[in-house]
Structure formats: C-alpha cells, structure tokens
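*** Protein under study ***
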Amino acid sequence: MATAKLASSSHFHLTHNLFSLTTLLTVNMAQSDESLPSQSHVSSSSQGPDKTASAKNLEPGTETHSTEIDSESDVNKCLDDAEFLKQEGTAHFKAGSWAEALASYRSGLGRLPKRREVKTKQPARNNDSEVKKDEEKEETEGEGEEPLTGQDLEVAKLRSVLNANIGACHVKLGENKDAVKACTDALLDDPTYVKALQRRASCSEQLNTWSSLVQAQDDYQTLLKVLPSDSPLRPSINRSLASVKPRLEAAQQKETGEMIGKLKEMGNSFLGNFGLSTDNFKFEPNGQGGYSMNFGR
C-alpha cells in the first residue's frame, strides 16, 4: 500500500490529480514495455437616410460588418443611417415582428464604425533592457493616441443600444445564448448599461449551466453596485441573486461529477491494458483541506 499526499481544495483539483495520475502511470508503464509504442440611453436625433439604408431586404439573422470611415462627415452620415435603422427596428419590435426587428438592428449596427481595439500587454521579458525598451515604446505610443471625441462617444452609445436591442430580439425568439452574446457586446461600449446587465443575467439564468449561473450572479452583483440605493429594481435583483446561489452550487456539483465520470472512463481505458482501473486509487480527505490517495489491488 502506497500513500501520496495531493493538495486539493475543490473537486477540480481532485479531478486534475486523478487525470494526472492516470497519464503518469500509463506513460511509465508503457516505457517499461518495449512492445508498447513509446440602461437608459438618449438617442441622437437625425434625419432619415437614403432608402438604400433600409433593412427590409436583409435576411433575418444576417450579420453585417462595420463600415470603414474616412472622415467626420462620413461618421455623421453613418450615425444618421444607424439611427434611422434603429427606429425602423423598434417599430418592427413593437409590432411583434422579432425577425424583422433583428434584421434592422443588425443593419444599423453594420453602419457604425468599428470599435477601437484595446491594446493588450506584451508577454513578460526576462531581459531588463528589453523591458525598458518596451516601456519606452508604450509611453511613445500612448502619447500618439487621440482621446475619444464627442462623436466617438455618440457612436459607442448607439452601438451599445443596438447590441442591447439585438439581445432583446433574441430573447423574444427564445435564443438565450445569442442574447447573452449581444448583451456582452453592448457592455463593451457601456459596462454599466442596466438593461443589458439585466437581460444578460436573466438569459444566463435560463441557460442554467455552471458558467452561465456564475455570469448571472456576477451581473446581479454589478447591478447592485451601479444602481442608486433607492432604485425600485433593487428588491427584485436581491431576490434573483439569492435564488441563483443554490442553483449555482447544484450545477457545479452536477457538472463536476460528470467530468470526473468521463475522466474515470478515460483512465480505465488506459489502465485496463495493465490490469488496473481507477478503482485501485482511493481518495480520502486528509483533514487539512486536501486528500490522501491510497493505491491497492
């Protein structure tokens, strides 16, 4: 009987240990046998665009691409077109024509400039001179970046509203996963957009997976932070938050159990070649927040 201490504070650590042990045993045994192969937003007012901006002939569900913008006047024209298409979509939505509303909103979104890309940090450097050069380069690049203009903010606001409205259409069509994605896009431009946070939280609850319930919980907590203390929405959000916690824990246990079952099946397929199975390995709490593993035949 051999005993090995494995540090683990959750089912994930236990799963990882089981999978690592199975792989290690398989590799070692194979090497010994040469025969085995080694919310509320104000819309910009504007005049309606040309008829070519209408989304009536756009196939529902067709995604459009953001327009390339060359000048300020082009941006204004695109804002006008997008606002017109937003109003068109809202008219369809109020009439209960969800697919048509979705097409109009998507077409309007495609008329807007692309969102500015956020620069990501470079990988860590071991050489001090390289780090210094990178820092100097970032400072130089930062000096050349232009701050957001009022027009940029107007574009971001409208893009956020259109994405949130796209999410509302997906909700009506019973497409919760797509609604979550659309609301996530809306929150990229406005992280405190109350309607988008509410909608994403609600749809994440409907998906009812471990990860989606974590997302719902996070969104409800964010809403409680951004809403004023006297907001009439707070009581319902608190109730929703309280109901999510036990469901999240149940989903975690269920999905972890399923994962362990699949890993055991995988491990048995390897260990079976050597007359072993995962049942030969017993895990027991060690009283210190970890587990002891016992091996026996």
In short: Strands lie at 2-6, 281-285, 291-295.
